[in-house]
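Justification of computing resources. Each target in the renewal requires a structure prediction run like the one illustrated here; the chain below, 158 residues long, is used simply to show the kind of job we budget for.
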Amino acid sequence: MARYTDEERAQHVLMLEAAGYPKRKGALAQYAKKCGIPHPTLSRWYRHVQNPPPNKTVRKKKRDLKEALRALILDFTEHAHDAAKDAGLDPLTRGIGIATDKLLLLEGNANWRLEIIGLVKDGSMTAQQVRDELGEDLATELFDAGSIPAIQDRAPAK
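Resulting C-alpha cells:
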C-alpha cells in the first residue's frame, strides 16, 4: 500500500478541486485514473474522512497554486503578441482559458462550462439552445465533459 506525504495528499485534493470535484460529475473518476490513486482514497482525503491532508498544508498549497496560475495567465497575456506570430492565437487562448478555469474553480467560482451544464440539467436551457449559441463542436465537447448522456444522445444527425 502506497504512503503519501501531507504535501502529496494536499496536492491531490487541490487537483481534484481544480478538476471541478465535487460539482462536476466524473471529475473524481477522471482524476483518479490520471493520477493512479483509487477514487475511494481520493474521496476520503477530500471529505476529511480518512487520513486527510492537514488544512494548513492545503491552504498553503492552494495559495501557491492560485498565485502560480495568476502569474501564468499574466505571462500568457503579456506575451500574446509574440506568441501569435510564432504559433497563432489558438494555443495561447486555450492556455489562458484552461488556467482561468482552474483558477476560478480553486477560488470557489463555477466556470461558464459548469454553469451551462447546470442550466441544461435543471431544464433552464435546452441542448439546442447551447448548440445554437456555442456551435456544434463546442457544444458537443461541453456535453461530453459534463457526462450528460441524455444530451449526448440528442445531438442532431450529421
